[in-house]
Structure formats: C-alpha cells, structure tokens
Amino acid sequence: MEENKPFTANDSLAVIQQMINTARREQQDSGKGWIIWGWLLFTASISSFINMYTGTFSQYFFWNLFGLLTLAMLVYSVAIALLGKSKERIKTYTGELYRRLNIGFFITLMLIIVSINTGVTPTKGFALLMALYGFWALIYGATSNFRPSIYGSYFTWACALAAMFVHDFRWTMLLHGIAVLGGYIIPGHTANYQYRKTRKTNV
Amino acid sequence: MFKELDPILHSQLRLAVMSLLISVREAEFNFIREKTNATAGNLSVQLNKLKDVGYIDITKQFKDNYPLTTCRISPKGIDAFDQYVKDLQQYLDRRTL
C-alpha cells in the first residue's frame, strides 16, 4: 500500500471493508478440532458398543485408550504453550474466549468422569457428557455465527435427553456415538469445507 | 474536501492498519505487513504515527532470539475509528443528496 496517494471516500470504504474481511478470514476456524475430537469420541463409542456384543476386550478398554490419548494431547498442548512455539500471529477476542471456556469445559468434563467413577452410573454419566458437548457446540455456534454447530447442539441435547431414559449401557454408547456424529463431526466437516472453499477463492 | 475527516486515519496504510486491528485483539508486525502489502520501513513509520497520537499500543519483545513487535488498538483508537466511519458515512450521504 502506498502512502501519499490521492485517497477518496470510496477508497476509504474499500480499504476498511478489505481489511475487516481479511481479519475475518484469518479468524475463520478450520473445524479440525471438532473433526479430531469428534472422530476419536465416535470411534471410542462405537468400538465400545461393538465390543459389548463381542466381548473381545474389557468394557472400558476403548475409553481407557481414549483417556491415554487425551492425556498425551494435553501434555503436548501444554508443552507448546509453555515453550512459546505457537504459530499464532494474531490474537482475537473470540480466541481468548474459547481458550478460557475450554478450561471450564475440561474441568466440568473431568468432574463428570470422576462422578462416573464414584457412584453416578455410566449410563447417566455419559448422558451428562453429551449435554456438556451440546453446551460447548452451542457456545461455538453462537459466537462464530455458525448454524451447523447450533443445530448440532440441539441434536446432541436430544440424544442426551434420550440417554437419560436408557438403562442398557450398550445403547448409551450408540447414542453417544450418534450425538458426537451430529454435534461434532458433521459441523466440523462443514466448517472445514467452508474454510477450504474460502481459502481457495482468496488465492 | 475531507477537512472534517481525521487526517491521521485518512491515509491508505494507516486506515488499513486500524481496520485490521479493530477486528482482532492484537497482531504481529509481520502479519500486518503481509496483509497490507506494505514495506517494513513504511509500515514502521506509519505505526509510530498511530502510536504517537495514542491510537495503538506497540509492544516489543523477543521470541526465540528474534524481535517480535505486536500492535493492538487502544480505546482512544477505537473511538477515533468509530468517529472516522461516522464522518465518512456523513460525507457519502451528503454527496448522494
């Protein structure tokens, strides 16, 4: 951009619009987080569902695997943050909000997991987990004005409600997998498709 | 013609910087340079002008032994930008009458 060039009111508007669009594009979420966590949760749920029919492994084998993987990813994220290797070139207000809410989400998630291990039945505990996923999807959808996540949150809550009345853990696992599919995976892939489309049109 | 418009903001590069910063909490120097297609020298001069009038805050630190400059818009800058947009709107409305 050149300085001291004749600059009209229309030029001003064009610059403002162009730069705000640039910043907006930069903030657009690729949906990768939803896709990764969605597929991991879906795989753990459906594998547990099938495993409960075949009896190949212990009931919580896939959830223990999922827990170990989550722990490894958590250690990796903390290490990246502490070593300052983040490649983030801008900080946004919504990004800051998500970071803080993420902490709240994981604390609540852990509390529900602890409750499952200290007396709350797994069928009810997983129903509460689904309700929490729905809440997070709603926050994301509302703050980023992304409708698939808003609809996903309603869908996840519907699955959570249904799971409250289920007594067989196998069906809880199936509902959990379906909830994640509608609440995380489909909106995640939709966000990723839109993200790639935007990048392609702006090359 | 543009007397009523803030002369600090009524410049292509400075306005671009302010428009970029209004949408984010803070941005690195290289990011701003890349998005505005400005040269490092020119951008540096314009950023200092914005800083001198209190429209932006500039933080200089080191990351992996490299200097890292980050900029963020100040409350005064937000007010000025808001006023500039209103003035611009008024000017355009008057012109279309």
Question: How would you characterize this protein structure?
Answer:
The complex is a heterodimer of chains A (203) and B (97). Chain A has 203 residues and is mostly helical. Chain A has seven helices and one strand. In chain A, helix 5 runs antiparallel to helix 6 (147-164) and helix 6 (147-164) runs antiparallel to helix 7. The model of chain A has no long low-confidence stretch (mean pLDDT 89). Chain B has helices at residues 12-22, 29-36, 40-52, 75-96, and strands spanning 26-28, 56-63, 66-73. The A-B interface holds A 1-3, 5, 7, 9-13, 15-16, 18-20, 22-24, 26-27, 84, 89-93, 95-96 and B 2, 5, 10-13, 15-16, 19-20, 22-28, 30-31, 35-38, 42, 46, 63-64, 85, 88, 91-92, 95. Strand 1 (90-91) of chain A pairs antiparallel with strand 1 of chain B.
- Average of the residue pLDDT scores of chain B: 89
Helix content of chain A: over 70%
The succession of helices and strands of chain A, N to C, reads HHHEHHHH
Strand content of chain B: 15-25%
What is the number of beta strands of chain B? 3
Compute the CA-based radius of gyration of chain B.
15 Å
> What structural class do helix, strand and pairing data of chain B support?
alpha+beta
- Which sheet architecture does the biggest sheet of chain B show? 3 strands, antiparallel
Rg on CA atoms of chain A, Å? 21 Å
| General shape of chain B | elongated
Q: What distance lies between the first and last C-alpha atoms of chain B, to the nearest angstrom?
A: 16 Å
TL;DR?
The complex is a heterodimer of chains A (203) and B (97). With 203 residues, chain A is mostly helical.
